[in-house]
Amino acid sequence: MNTKTIKIDRNNFNIEDLKEAAMTLKNGGLVAFPTETVYGLGADGLNPQASEKIYAAKGRPSDNPLIIHIADINALDVLTKNPSKKGIQLAKKFWPGPLTLIFDKSEIVPYSTTGGLETIAIRMPNHPIAYELIKMSGVYVAAPSANTSGRPSPTKAEHVMDDLDGKIDYIIDGGKVDIGLESTIVDVTDDIPTILRPGYITRSMIEDVIGPVNVDQALLSKSYNPNIVAKAPGMKYKHYAPKGELIIFEGEMDRVIGKINEITKQKISEGLKVGIIATDETIGAYKEGDIKIIGTRKDEDTIARGLFEILRDFDNDGVDYIFTESFGDNKLGQAIMNRLLKAAGYRVVKVL
Ligand code: AMP
Ligand code: MG
């Protein structure tokens, strides 16, 4: 298949520029497009043949459900059954934005989109290209991240091309995304909602609107526990994995840096290639290896934006190991550490 790519300036485009992509969606094709979180791979979510193409292109397991993207909150009337009051309150407060809500699904939503579940995940993205594209297509757009299943999520159109060129109809290149981590997912089907995936919208932002919420057990443990099954089916899969072996070093910063320098020296002497994830604050302290800056500790947003890209860059460099410092657990830090731990397969070295 020939994949068509068009470049669109998110701040200055004609709606007409999106027409061909919108028609592709309407006619059952696959279109990758930018959102504020990561790039999404869209298809008509009510057309089983179309959503099955998403699974094929990504190599995604068929029990891993898709998020439906909408441009109008009234879509809830069509896609859900008895949406909870708390769910609607959250939608009104945070949509459009990086929050996905799980509701009971209506009859018309096919099981091929929900991975066989009776529930449906819905989000209204806050990105001008995503918004106009969904509106113009006239369909409810099922869209997981536009990467090969298991690889780091795409934060630039180049990442989508690396994974899906030749496998999908269309890519809209709208430049780099804003946030760089996938949406927060909250299950609002119970009286007390549960956070299934941490993201830019934090627990305290949610609790400010609807009161106490639970956090899925699987998110709380820092090590992999086979006895705790994640409630978002997708969270159980190996995720975001770079090709090199990623290891997180935790502890007092000076000691962490000392340990990373020591192990890097040893691996290089064995003839191996080592990548190091550093921050603006620590870059000067590393001695050797392929050292890259992820962002600044003064602004967690920069770390979130840089995470998936740096993992892909190390893949391109062909490193055998990637050593990284760890990040705080507050606010966005929780989402950053969630992705980093999964990418590392929970390999953490505690430096004493
Ligand atoms: P992605 O779009 O690639 O970020 O993946 C979508 C995420 O949403 C996966 O982790 C899914 O398991 C989760 N998800 C989608 N639908 C549901 C649902 N009905 N219930 C729970 N989790 C869901
Ligand atoms: Mg994904």
Sheet/helix structural class:
alpha/beta
CATH topology title of the largest domain: DHBP synthase
CATH architecture descriptor text of the largest domain: Alpha-Beta Complex
Mean pLDDT: 95
How large a portion of the residues is in β-strands, by DSSP E? 15-25%
Low-confidence runs (pLDDT<50, min 5 residues)?
none
The succession of helices and strands, N to C, reads EHEEHEHHEHEHEHEEEHEHEHEEHEHE
Give the strand order, joined by hyphens, for the main sheet.
1-8-2-3-7-4-6-5-9-10-11
Percent in helix:
25-40%
C-alpha-based Rg, rounded? 20 Å
Overall CATH class of the largest domain? Alpha Beta
Q: Number of helical runs?
A: 12
**Largest sheet data:** 11 strands, mixed
**How many beta-strand segments?**
16
Describe this structure in words.
The chain is α/β, with parallel strands linked by helices. It has 2 domains: 4-234, DHBP synthase, CATH 3.90.870; 245-351, Threonylcarbamoyl-AMP synthase, C-terminal domain (Rossmann fold), CATH 3.40.50. The chain is built from 12 helices and 16 strands. The strands form 2 sheets. It has an 11-stranded mixed sheet, sandwiched between helices. It is globular, with a radius of gyration of 20 Å. Adenosine monophosphate binds at residues 64-65, 67, 102, 114, 117, 119-121, 144-145, 182, 185, 196, 232-235.
How do the strands and helices of this protein lay out in sequence?
Elements: E1 4-7, H1 19-26, E2 31-33, E3 40-44, H2 48-58, E4 67-69, H3 75-79, H4 85-94, E5 99-104, H5 111-114, E6 119-123, H6 128-137, E7 141-142, H7 157-164, E8 170-173, E9 184-187, E10 194-197, H8 203-210, E11 214-215, H9 217-220, E12 245-250, H10 253-269, E13 274-278, E14 290-293, H11 300-317, E15 321-325, H12 332-343, E16 348-350
Parallel strand pairs: 1-8, 2-8, 4-6, 5-9, 10-11, 12-15, 12-16, 13-14, 13-15
Antiparallel strand pairs: 2-3, 3-7, 4-7, 5-6, 9-10
Helix pairs in contact: 1-6, 11-12
The chain binds adenosine monophosphate (AMP) and magnesium ion.
